[in-house]
Amino acid sequence: MTELTGKRALITGISGQDGWYLTELLQQKGYEVHGILPSRAPGIGEAGPQLYYGDLADGTTLDSVFDQAQPDEVYNLAAQSHVRLSFDLPIYTADVTGVGALRVLEATRKFQDRAGKQVKFYQASSSEMFGKVVETPQSETTPFHPRSPYACAKVYAFWQTVNYRESYGMFAVNGILFNHESPRRGEAFVTRKITKAAARIKLGLQKSLQLGNLEARRDWGFAGDYVDAMWRMLQHDEPDDFVVATGETYSVRDCLDAAFTHLDLDWQKFVQTDTSLYRPAEVDLLRGDATKARENLGWEPKVSFARLIRMMVDHDLDLARRELRLQDMDLPE
């Protein structure tokens, strides 16, 4: 049932996985949704948000976008978000993921002054900031030890968000989200690489899969659950930072086993390890403690790891069947 809030939200990175789910959630709550993206993305247009085109590496258009969107809430989800790629593009990653967040914060502060109203700001922070962890599980008080250009950029954005909250009295929060996946996850990310490959191998469209570190362990949740936590943070009485996680950890190997077993396949017959896919500095284990979010926001994850992987495999199996049908249509009679 739609909740008629009459609020306006501006989402950067609206065409990504989280932006997609967040748009749907906010529209169900009666928000007018506006979004910034670098180019039109298939599918996002049907959701009905007002779209603006821009790049966080160039903040010159942000003031104009804010004046047009007139947001009550800003969700900064835009980033160069692929950790392994950040080692190849460290300067670009720092500019978009780190300084880009600062550009959005500053645009929010200036618009708030022009509009004469409070504008709430959400920063998409990351469990990768913990990196070489000093304690497990990781909570809001765990020290950061970033192990990639991406993670370093996210730490910068985190502290800028805290700084704007403390210096300007802004309602600015960090959501320290642990890994969250879905059928809408980008195909460069390991979970989606696995579920897509399993489906294509099942139908004979692919013979093998190359992966890096199979022993890395992550706290994996469902993106649809996690965007609800984002929204709850901006409805809280006071601005604060929250870890969002399931509290459970699984290895890449576990993910392989869940995905391939769902299709009655033995992943060990198809998967090869490629050391070139290892990160220069590995993050071995991430597991979050979301007690604060549970107690203060009333949030909890609903989708289990097993259900999440099945959901992703089933989605990719449908895509693989479609691909197979298209190939059959091209066959000569």
3D structure, described in words:
- The chain is α/β, with parallel strands linked by helices and 333 residues long.
- It has two domains: 8-183 and 221-244, 3-Layer(aba) Sandwich (Rossmann fold); 190-216 and 249-282 and 303-326, UDP-galactose 4-epimerase, domain 1.
- Helix content is 42%, strand content 15%.
- It has ten helices and 13 strands.
- The strands form four sheets. The protein has a seven-stranded parallel β-sheet, sandwiched between helices.
- It is globular, with a radius of gyration of 20 Å.
- The model has no long low-confidence stretch (mean pLDDT 93).
In CATH, the architecture of the largest domain is 3-Layer(aba) Sandwich
Task: Please indicate the count of domains.
Answer: 2
CATH homologous superfamily name of the largest domain?
Answer: NAD(P)-binding Rossmann-like Domain
Which strand order do you get reading across the main beta sheet? 3-2-1-4-5-6-11
Shape: globular
Write down the CATH class of the largest domain: Alpha Beta
Radius of gyration of CA atoms, rounded to a whole number: 20 Å
Overall pLDDT, averaged? Answer: 93
Strands, total number = 13
Percent in strands: 5-15%
Which structural category do the helix and sheet elements fall into? alpha/beta
